UniProtKB/TrEMBL annotation:
<feature type="domain" description="Calponin-homology (CH)">
    <location>
        <begin position="212"/>
        <end position="319"/>
    </location>
</feature>
<keyword id="KW-0963">Cytoplasm</keyword>
<dbReference type="GO" id="GO:0030031">
    <property type="term" value="P:cell projection assembly"/>
</dbReference>
<keyword id="KW-0677">Repeat</keyword>
<comment type="similarity">
    <text>Belongs to the parvin family.</text>
</comment>
<keyword id="KW-0472">Membrane</keyword>
<dbReference type="Pfam" id="PF00307">
    <property type="entry name" value="CH"/>
</dbReference>
<dbReference type="GO" id="GO:0005737">
    <property type="term" value="C:cytoplasm"/>
</dbReference>
<keyword id="KW-0007">Acetylation</keyword>
<keyword id="KW-0130">Cell adhesion</keyword>
<comment type="subunit">
    <text>Interacts with ILK; the interaction promotes the establishment of cell polarity required for leukocyte migration. Interacts with ARHGEF6; the guanine nucleotide exchange factor activity of ARHGEF6 is essential for the PARVG-induced enhancement of cell spreading.</text>
</comment>
<dbReference type="GO" id="GO:0030036">
    <property type="term" value="P:actin cytoskeleton organization"/>
</dbReference>
<dbReference type="GO" id="GO:0034446">
    <property type="term" value="P:substrate adhesion-dependent cell spreading"/>
</dbReference>
<dbReference type="InterPro" id="IPR001715">
    <property type="entry name" value="CH_dom"/>
</dbReference>
<dbReference type="GO" id="GO:0003779">
    <property type="term" value="F:actin binding"/>
</dbReference>
<protein>
    <recommendedName>
        <fullName>Gamma-parvin</fullName>
    </recommendedName>
</protein>
<dbReference type="InterPro" id="IPR036872">
    <property type="entry name" value="CH_dom_sf"/>
</dbReference>
Length: 321
């Protein structure tokens, strides 16, 4: 009977028992694959990936089908953790994909702070074999680490068959696997979505004329601060992308002297721009300025929200002066 359960699932998911000889594996039950909550979670993860990688023109349609070769995970690692690995962007052969996944997953596990292997619910083989359960566990862990404010569907659970394959046969039992936790906090002791959301994220949901009004106020503040240096910003969305004006603004407001040898005054490539912006955010971090999930690469990519978050934080801190 146990073998029949596994074989039934094998037909739906093309599981090769021999390839997992000596291993333990969990496989989602066919009935759970049709659970609307699981579908919502999968779509939320796809939407998150596509928003994160929009500037790189990378689009995924399926968490199960589009992450196995390491390309998407590599780009997510680069953007979310600012870790840039010397690996080929597109790995065509299975061997090259596995080598790439080995490097990417090792860095991801490190960034996620997972030192205990018992906490890791994915591995190279599972991801490369398009294992849905392992892939979702990995992506949920990444969201929780890098973008904890993202509201994923809560209390998503699936029924799985836990399978152990050995030379003596197959052992299996049905278990419940938790993909996302239930929200246990009450309405009285947790802030509303509006209260907890970043003010810039709230702003960008308003009408365009209201957004422009705030941007003009911040731009006026920036140009007042930079007037002593004879500099003026006309396009807030673009002129901070290389980090030069941002560094000069921070130095002017915070009283820093930043040696010219520490940054690129005339950056000519994205790497030099990223160096400048990273230095700027590090300086702000040293002043204990609170910034909500700002990635240096986002500013280099001219992400309006990221740029506004930094400038708004400076504006809020120094406007009284």
């Amino acid at each position: 009977m146990e073998a029949d359960i596994f074989e039934y699932h094998k037909d739906d998911n093309t599981v090769d028992a021999e390839s997992f000889l000596g291993e333990k594996r969990k496989v989602i039950q066919p009935t759970s694959l049709k659970d609307p909550n699981l579908e919502k979670l999968k779509q939320a993860l796809v939407d998150w990936i596509n928003r994160t990688l929009k500037v790189e023109h990378i689009v995924v349609q399926s968490v199960q089908e589009d992450l196995y070769d390491g390309l998407v995970l590599h780009h997510l690692l680069s953007r979310l953790a600012s870790v840039h690995l010397p690996v080929e962007d597109i790995a065509l052969t299975s061997a090259a994909q596995i080598r790439k996944l080995e490097l990417v997953l090792a860095e991801l596990d490190k960034s996620l702070g997972l030192q205990d292997s018992s906490q890791i619910k994915w591995n190279i083989k599972l991801i490369h074999n398009k294992d849905l359960l392992a892939t979702i566990h990995l992506l949920v862990a990444m969201v929780r680490c890098f973008q904890p404010e993202l509201d994923l569907p809560r209390n998503v659970k699936v029924e799985v068959v836990a399978v152990e394959v050995s030379s003596g046969g197959i052992k299996s039992n049905v278990q419940t696997e938790v993909l996302t936790e239930e929200n246990t906090s009450t309405a009285a002791d947790s802030p509303s979505n509006t209260e907890s959301e970043d003010p810039i994220e709230q702003l960008l949901k308003l009408e365009a004329h209201k957004v422009n009004t705030v941007k003009k106020a911040i731009l006026h503040f920036v140009n007042q601060s930079m007037s002593a240096m004879g500099l003026q910003v006309a396009d807030m969305d673009q002129q901070f992308a290389d980090g030069v004006i941002l560094l000069l603004l921070i130095g002017q407001l915070e009283g820093f002297f930043i040696p010219l040898c520490d940054f690129n005054l005339t950056p000519v490539n994205p790497s030099e721009m990223l160096h400048n912006v990273t230095l700027a955010l590090d300086l702000l971090n040293d002043t204990d300025l609170q910034l909500s999930n700002v990635n240096p690469q986002d500013i280099v990519s001219q992400d309006v929200a990221a740029t506004l978050k930094v400038l708004y934080a400076l504006f809020k801190k120094h406007k009284e002066k």
